[in-house]
Amino acid sequence: MIIGEAANMLTKEFRDEHPEVPWRNIIDMRNVLVHGYYIASPLFIWETYTKDLGPLLEQVKRYIAELQK
After folding, report:
1. I need a surface site. Which of 17, 19, 30, 47 has the fewest CB within 10 A?
2. 30-53 pLDDT tens trace
3. Does the active-site annotation cover 62?
4. Which residues have C-beta within 8 Å of that of residue 26, sequence separation ≥ 6?
């Protein structure tokens, strides 16, 4: 939920400059989790955790490094 909220707070320009990250999917998942929609299955959440968070973390680290230059 926190990642989705943070993604939603990024500027549209930043998200547009980095289309390799599925920003809309991240924000949509946050909405599903927060609002308790019935489509948020435990398996879907687990798969997101195990498959998607690692690559997203690496991408965020690269963005931070770019900003610090």
Report:
1. 19
2. 998 888 767 778 888 899 899 999
3. no
4. 3, 4, 7, 56
